From TrEMBL:
Keywords: Antiport, Cell membrane, Ion transport, Membrane, Transmembrane, Transmembrane helix, Transport. Its main location: membrane. This is Multisubunit sodium/proton antiporter, MrpA subunit. It comes from the Bacteria. It is a multi-pass membrane protein. Coiled coil: none annotated. It comes from Stappia indica. One of its GO terms (molecular function) is antiporter activity. Residues 689-772 form the MrpA C-terminal/MbhE domain. NCBIfam families: PRK12647.1. One of its GO terms (biological process) is monoatomic ion transport. The keyword Nucleus does not apply.
Amino acid sequence: MSITGPEATFAAVLAPFAAAAIAPFATRLLGANAAWPLAIVPAAIFLFFAGLVPDVAGGASFTPAVDWVPAYGVSFSFYVDGLSTLFALLISGIGTFIILYAGGYLKGHPHQGRFLSFLFLFMGAMLGLVLGNDLITLFIFWELTSITSFLLIGFDHLRAASRRAALQALVVTGGGGLLLLAGFLMIIALTGVSDMATLVAGGDILREQALYPLVLLLVLGGAFTKSAQFPFHFWLPNAMEAPTPVSAFLHSATMVKAGVYLLMRMHPVLGDTAMWTTILPIFGGTTLLVGTLLAVRQTDLKLMLAYTTVASLGLLVMLTGTSWDKAIEGAVLYLLAHSLFKGALFMVAGTIDHEAGTRDVTKLGGLRSAMPITFAAACLAALSMSGLPPFVGFIAKEYLYAGTWGATGANQAVTAVAVIGNALMLVIAAAVALKPFLGPKVETPKHAHEGPVLLFAGPVALSLAGLAAAVMAHATGVYFISPVVSSVLGTATEVEVHLIPGYIGAALILSLVTVALGIVFYLKLEALRAAMARTLAAIGWGPDKGFDQVIAGIVSFSGSFTRLIQGGRMDVYMTLTFLITALALLVPLTLTGNWPSAVPMPDFRFYEWGILAIAVSGLVAVLVAKTRLTAIVSLGIQGFAVAVIFMLFGAPDLSFTQFMVETLSVVILALVMTRLNLRPRDHRPMPQRIVQGAIALGVGVGLAGLLMRITELTFDRSLSDFFESYSRTIAHGRNIVNVILVDFRGFDTFGEIAVVMLAGLCVLALIRVRPKHAREEALDRAAGDEALQKSGEARL
């Protein structure tokens, strides 16, 4: 079965970028109502990918591509299969409600158009990431998500906390992106494959490589930083400084799941090894427990949900790392469930903050009557997060328990971590959904009331979607879960999804244990919160504080190192430059044994000997010059002698250029020297002269040796033949030297012109520096003494 219209995939990925350009103008014209027409863009993308679901569920996939950088084998290509289609549906579907929600949440904000533009850019970057087939294309979209998330997190750029959170997210995820780039480049170098579809179909193409461990660690570096795995988890809760629409989008279906997506995508080619099944479960399980325990400590609704997102990402990484088929089925189900309930709950938290004026759960209560629709949506989403029927979160929990309990090896440890983590997530779900709404009414900073339809449309729709996915469990399994599991495992797999377990087994018993533990923990929530507060206070230091210390250390080291190598002395800079040049010339010639053989005495004509004598006399004149001005003029003698040599050997245009350069150099340098107050003689001590003379001699000997060695080699005419053949036909010029400078090396020539112009501006600035006369300096000293005297009298 074929899928038609691959070009539409390009349109679907590029459409958010077009909407980003339109959003500011639409908001300026329509205000908050602009969210409605703008939401049509992600809705249309959702409908497009929904139309592909039947074919993808039947096992079809396609990889539309166009050449991007053909010289390097880079193509702008996409890979549409079960995994990428599910992510595209989540990004576009949830993104539709996020756009609507942002229209209501930031109504009247002066920069609402800019915010919506950033959201669309972020959406397009995520679509390109999950659909990217070419590894370089995927990486570009990967980094684009880091850049756009930086813009979104730091949207309120006047607040220091927002700027810090944005910088932190960019540094952590951007650093991980560099590791991922190194991993991708190694994969291409080792396998010769640069597209994901071919790579994942290659079986052991990477696992059998000797450098597989290094490739795996580099890929995990990118995935762990992006999906906030311990110890890189700290940036994700701090990203809550962003407006709530960003938090809801970031945590539900987009950037934070990019690392999980990458691990699932590359499981067929990197997974099911000892390193994979050791590293991922350990870090994933640690992240699950750390995230849930830190969530218990919080009282801010968004932070409570943020830390449970960290925990959920850890759960997904742990399950993917087991490489157990049933555990991966549970991971895919939980991926879907988490996207729906977490997006809804974040929007609920934002609505409470927007309408009540606070997110502190200890300062909220009794909002059920004031916000009934929001309360209903919160309850539905919290039930799914708690893993209770009849929601898709319940099915996911059943399947992941069945997958971990029935597996061999370290299944007991994985299962125990999953039970404890899920029980603590039930606590947070209940706290978010019940504490703000139940109990006696608490006076809030704002008069609480139900938000507009733009604010509650998303939570209601997503929470009901979690219910519908469970009620229609069979269709969910056929159309969504089975294709994704097939992509992750690399083999066609059918997953039977049922809402009601057909038997009482270990999974159901573990589920009941989870609920019982969750209820106990919820009743002891205040005690748990106090215990975690004491524990964290005792620990003191953490990764978040460590990040600040690392950044401060880098800044301090950079300052010290800069002061060390950039001391402000030109003679030191020049000495180091020429020393490195001498070493670069002499060391390779010596180590490789490529010094030239003895050069025979040349058979010069008398006038050629005369030109050589003039050049030598110019050198002697430089060395014995009494003043620097005399040395500069004497230096021009050598340049003119070289220009004459060029003319004698049949290069008049090069000779003319040399004459012009030498003339201008001497004139400009002489002009500068006359304007500066310099000593007439060289004041360097003798040891310094000896060292710098030796360096100069080394540069001269190295250059001479290199040039003489080159002249001993057989002349390669391939480049000369190329210029002779194409200068006339391509560049339409008869003077080959001019054609090379203007056409073949046009950008180099342009850069050289820019350098000369910059040097001219610097010379002009130096010329305009006028030294003070003695009388002016005396007046300045007198004025300073008078000011100092008045200051002393004032103190007395």
